[in-house]
Amino acid sequence: MVKNKAGIHARPASMIAQIASKFISEIYIRKDEGFPGWMNGKSLLGILSLEIFYGDKATVRCDGPDEKEAMRSIAKLFLEKFKEE
To answer: CATH number of the domain at 10-83, out of 3.40.50.720, 2.40.110.10, 3.90.1150.10, 3.30.1340.10?
Structure first.
């Protein structure tokens, strides 16, 4: 669940994309309810298109050789509320 009050706007989306781009694994993110489905977690515009707001549930999927490390790094961003609060 997204706990930072501003939701996933440009700055948090950029943080996700930058972290995701450091990994070999494929990384996808989706808003649990609604369109457009899975988006590339390395794409700033893809993440922004999900329109994830405060209180929304989002799912991250990582597939590849460094998937565990990728998931930990991205989960840390969510847990830290993208360092906004």
So the answer is: 3.30.1340.10
